[in-house]
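Suppose you are handed a protein chain with no further information: no name, no annotation, nothing but its sequence. What can you learn? This example shows the usual starting point.
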Amino acid sequence: EWLDGQRVMSLVSNRKSSVDEDDELEDLDEEDECAPMSWEEKECVRKAASLPLIELGIRCTLSQLIETGVMHADPHGGNLLRLRETGELAYLDFGLVSEIPPTVRDGLVAAVTLLVFDRDYEAVAGLFGELQLVPTDVIENPYQFAALTTALREAAEATLSYPDDELGLERGENETEEEARLRRAKSAVPDVRFDQLLGALLALVPKYRFLLPPYFLNNARALGTLEGMARTADPNFNILAIVYPFAVKRLLQNPTGSPVLRRVLRQLISNKRTGRMSLTRLKLMIEDAASLTGVSRMAIIASAMTTTAGWRLAVESVFAGAFWCVGRCVGAVFFVTGITAARNAWGRFIYRLNRDIDDDEDGTPARVGSVF
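A reasonable first move is to predict its three-dimensional structure. Written in structure tokens, the prediction is:
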């Protein structure tokens, strides 16, 4: 089949425009009331117009990498076309295709969410075994595992740059709720150069005997190529802002019922102190995905509930909310009736009584908190 289009690389490269491209930009000039654009301004417009197409290419590559497991492993600018009639993206040359095992796909989703949402480098290091990247004896040896975790943290801190966010969860004075959610989401995602991160990880290969299967290198090269084209069009482009919400939606859906994704999701949305489900953490995760993708929170929830795992998560969330409400109501009743005050007074009385007994037995003051 004959495809009439432009190579994506020609849309972002620094060179003189072709006749067809000049005609397209002149059409923009005619529609615009401003003065005709200079060559430099036309170049900026051309590159800016190509960015959504490259972002679409990244999403398509992520879908192939994580959802289908069959991936076009050579998506350079010459193998991607923008069709002239429809403006759609077309892939060429399927001579290099990678097949990714399901366990590796689940491990990639888990690693991205653990790294961005929780910054849990120890859990990411543990996933390397499930990704089949590190020998089992390295993971099972506590000293080597601790060293691997430290090396991962140092590599991440050297290549990931988290934006400063002084407001945190608070809303700014002149900030709408949507703007506040987008700011929080962007501050949660670190800026990264994928090629630099990959280089830092490759530096760990000899020491920890990383096993890099062919599909891993092919996939890394594919994402690195697409990121390079996107940064040519926009130097501030951050590939994690696309990868992270994609991984979050996959984690919430868990269409294959993966025990790895189920365990990681439970870890991410649990209260660190009580171990119970935290609706606040789940809400923040959904808001991150919604803000970074530009869709509503209800759309993210509806997408998750298309699977059995998503329905199970929804039911657990309802029970967690009901349990929280009941606990608040019981606490309020205890406070109003004086039960809370009486319980606190009784606890202080028992504490002082035990402290006095300890002092009488050994003649030294008891250690604070020795009884309760």
